[in-house]
Amino acid sequence: MLTFSFLTLFPELLAPFAGEAILGKARERGLLHVNLVHLRDFSDNRHLKVDDTPYGGGAGMVIRVDVAERALASLPPADEVILLTPAGQPFTQAVAEELAQKAHLAFLCGRYEGFDARTEGLVTRELSIGDFVMMGGEAAAACVLEAVARLRPGVIGDPESHRTDSFSSGLLDYPEYTRPPEWRGQSVPEVLRGGNHGAVARWRREQALARTLARRPDLLPGAALTPQDTQTLLELGASAPQLQAWNAPPPPPPRRARRVKKNGGSEQSG
User: Fold this and answer.
1) 134 labelled as ligand-binding?
2) Is 182-245 assigned to CATH 1.10.1270.20?
3) Does domain 2-149 have CATH number 3.40.1280.10?
4) What is the mean pLDDT of each run of 10 residues along the chain (270 residues)?
5) Is 144 labeled as ligand-binding?
6) Where does the record place the tRNA methyltransferase TRMD/TRM10-type domain (predicted)?
7) pLDDT at 164
8) Domain coordinates in residue numbering, the chain
9) Is 227 strand, coil or helix?
10) Under a CB-based contact definition with an 8 Å cutoff, are residues 18 and 34 in contact?
């Protein structure tokens, strides 16, 4: 079981998210445990006040470090104590895969102007889900919860499905289709209806490369490209300097043409 502990001023924001759909079913089956900790329970004053004005002046309020410390001390030891902050490490699929190997993750979800800077000494990792600012860390924590939980054995129905997801292979995912086969003049690609699994696999890889090249070429340096991938990228318009920057291997050697012998056989041309 993987335990997620969320220390927050608004546990009611996370409760429904963690209780529905696949996450809710995984909790019912004992695969995940979600612990919602209200920071006001550790305010240590009768007004349940957890924040104060910032030293030096300025707008907004700052959550006290002693409140965060007492809330964390109430938990069993966590493998990671994570602060959601715009200044944190970008949250990626690779980070999700790393965190999915842990047993207990604790998240500090800030509000207002965030936590007192001394709280950083209580955490093991700071994470950001993007270069933008929200009103609190709960939505970011929900993103991390879903991305990490789905990687745990038994949480999703097909244990192999996440291996072909966007970013897991270093590329964006290929496009998916289902019924109806025709819709407003748009057809499902014939290769997907032909039953040739090898052709489908090749088409999907080519589409993943095409999407990544067009939309997120910054991902290609981290992708495990094959010689055939290099050939496909060349056909898609990638340049030799780009391929070199992406550490792409050389394309496969060209196949030699076959010529017909006089006796009806064939031989490779030189």
Assistant:
1) yes
2) yes
3) yes
4) 97 96 97 98 94 94 97 98 96 97 98 95 98 95 98 85 71 94 96 96 97 96 96 97 97 81 58
5) no
6) 3-220
7) 61
8) 2-149, 182-245
9) helix
10) yes
